[in-house]
């Protein structure tokens, strides 16, 4: 009975995920957003924008703690999200299942859950919320656009994004508590 319930839940989540992805593809996709979403998504590749921001913050004594906390959070995110969860959950990406959607970026090679672009973005934004509210608002805006870009580009499900937000926020809170 428990396995049946889990299968039904998985099916319902995947159905809602594909409905949202298809809505984005059918209603929002256009040349302007294609170009913009590729650029925003690439900012999150390997957490590069957040690593760069961390090193920039470390250069200033007033912001050094925030920079170090972001880096520690990003390292934890790689270990927990990329190395552990992706390989335990092994969720196939939407672009692997529905090949009818033409991708604007190369097909990712790793599993889907959680979205590590989103996770790293929300680690950085949440650390900034704890350490310097002035930087937090633009960081959350950028994090949200990066997360949305992953849906737009059809490489993550909405539930992957929610998982990335939750995991990133939890990791950031944990790092800031230490």
Write up this protein.
The protein is mainly alpha-helical and about 180 residues long. It is about 75% helix and about 0% strand. The chain has 8 helices and no strands. The longest helix has 26 residues, at about 1-25. It is globular and about 50 Å long. The mean pLDDT is about 95.
End-to-end Cα distance: 42 Å
Task: Give the helix tally.
Answer: 8
Structural category is mainly alpha
Number of strands: 0
Shape: globular
Q: Roughly what percent helix?
A: over 70%
What's the SSE pattern?
HHHHHHHH
Summary keywords:
single chain; 178 residues; mainly alpha; 8 helices; globular
Present the secondary structure layout.
Elements (H helix, E strand, L loop, with lengths): L1 H26 L3 H13 L4 H11 L5 H26 L4 H4 L18 H16 L1 H20 L5 H20 L1
Short description:
This protein has helices spanning 2-27, 31-43, 48-58, 64-89, 94-97, 116-131, 133-152, 158-177.
């Amino acid at each position: 009975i428990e396995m049946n319930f889990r299968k039904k839940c998985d099916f319902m989540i995947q159905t809602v995920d594909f409905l949202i992805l298809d809505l984005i593809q059918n209603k929002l996709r256009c040349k302007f957003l294609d170009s913009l979403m590729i650029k925003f998504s690439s900012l999150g590749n390997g957490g590069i924008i957040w690593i760069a921001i961390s090193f920039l913050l470390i250069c200033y004594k007033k912001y050094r703690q925030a920079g170090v906390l972001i880096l520690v959070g990003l390292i934890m995110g790689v270990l927990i999200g990329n190395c552990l969860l992706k390989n335990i959950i092994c969720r196939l990406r939407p672009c692997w299942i529905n090949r009818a959607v033409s991708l604007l970026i190369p097909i990712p090679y790793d599993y889907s859950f959680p979205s590590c672009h989103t996770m790293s973005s929300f680690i950085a934004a949440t650390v900034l919320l704890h350490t310097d509210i002035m930087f937090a608002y633009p960081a959350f805006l950028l994090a949200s656009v990066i997360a949305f870009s992953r849906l737009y580009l059809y490489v993550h499900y909405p539930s992957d994004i929610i998982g990335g937000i939750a995991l990133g926020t939890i990791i950031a809170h944990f790092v800031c508590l230490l």
